Amino acid sequence: MPRLTSGSTISEHRAHVESNLLDAFETVLADVGWDALTLRDVAVQAGVSRTVVYNYFRDRASMLIAWTGREMDQFLDLCERELAPAKGPVRRLELLVSLVLAEYACQRGPALEIHGVLSPADKAALMDHVEPLRDLVTHILRTGHDVGVMDCPDVDMAAQVVLAALESQRDALHQGGRLDDAAERLWPLVQRIIGVMS
């Protein structure tokens, strides 16, 4: 039986160790960037052996995928809390746009210029993390269209365009651009995309 250093069950212990490894990955990524990042560095940061890291992750791409999944889960939890009291789909979408832009502005470390070096399978796994956010935007747009405050009959396409518009602000915000400027530029465009009814 393995010695449990945290948690009362093996699953709790594994979840704790994995969380610590992902915290270490985040720190190393912010410090040295993707190109220089090694699992050895992550192990040192986490205070464990490389063998422990390999018990959880096959390589740095699998660690990146797990980390981005955790980040998205935490972001969606935040969205659920912040959007719950909002009155109406237009206000909900406005808040969501603000939250996404704020997330871009707060991201740590160098920009991840790694999409081109990932395998097709890893790229697909990384993109899967965006699906819940796309589903949330689509749900808001469908609700807005159904109740007559938005004119966007093709909500799937509108959701993709809204997400692309948000993505267009990522680099500028990551490099220190002003959040209020980005929101002021983007929100009128989003309103036109979704056909906000006055």
Automatic annotation (TrEMBL):
SUPFAM superfamilies in the record: Homeodomain-like, Tetracyclin repressor-like, C-terminal domain
Database matches in InterPro entries: Homeodomain-like_sf (IPR009057), HTH-type_TetR-like_transc_reg (IPR050109), HTH_TetR (IPR001647), Tet_transcr_reg_TetR-rel_C_sf (IPR036271)
Keyword Manganese carried by entry: no
Alphabetized GO MF terms: DNA-binding transcription factor activity; transcription cis-regulatory region binding
Chain ranges of the HTH tetR-type domain: 15-75
Range of residues in the leader sequence: none
This protein's UniProt keywords: DNA-binding, Transcription, Transcription regulation
DNA-binding region(s) in UniProt: 38-57
Name of this chain's protein: TetR family transcriptional regulator
Annotated organism of origin: Isoptericola jiangsuensis
